[in-house]
Input
Amino acid sequence: MFFTTVLLSIIPAILAVDHPITVGLNGGLTFTPDQVQAAIDDTLTFTFVSKNHSVTTTNFSGAVCPPPPGGVGVNGWDSGFLSALGTTTPQFVYTVVDTAPHFASCMQAAGAHCRAGMNFALNPTAEMTFDEFNTNAMKS
Ligand SMILES: *[C@@H]1O[C@H](CO)[C@@H](O)[C@H](O)[C@H]1NC(C)=O
Ligand SMILES: *[C@@H]1O[C@H](CO)[C@@H](O)[C@H](O)[C@H]1NC(C)=O
Ligand SMILES: [Cu+2]
Output
């Protein structure tokens, strides 16, 4: 019983995967990769390598840009503004807690980065694709 309990609590930690995402690669308004399929307990590690950005959940359609402080949706998230203008490359880690699709963008410049395509999807589906979200953002 004891060992079963210990094993069951260790197994998810062993199977959990970290998904690294680079924010602002080569100075661009980008998340690299721009979409990730992840399981519950996996982590997304966003590393901010240029300028001053955020990764903040927002609506899939309608009013997408800019995402609001705090982020949109159940289990949404907001890194806040993280600047790589100095000598550091700050990181933000999100632990996946559900299997729902989540759509995120950058809040910077009143939505200008979001409208320029600085967008990211966690667990997009066939009905809610990254490309459709990105198109919605660029029009919003
Ligand atoms: C990052 O951007 C935010 C929002 O525009 C601003 O308030 C903040 O001062 C900026 N940080 C740096 C270090 O420039
Ligand atoms: C997201 O959509 C809801 C409902 O349409 C709306 O009330 C809200 O303002 C939108 N969020 C943003 C950030 O625009
Ligand atoms: Cu940005």
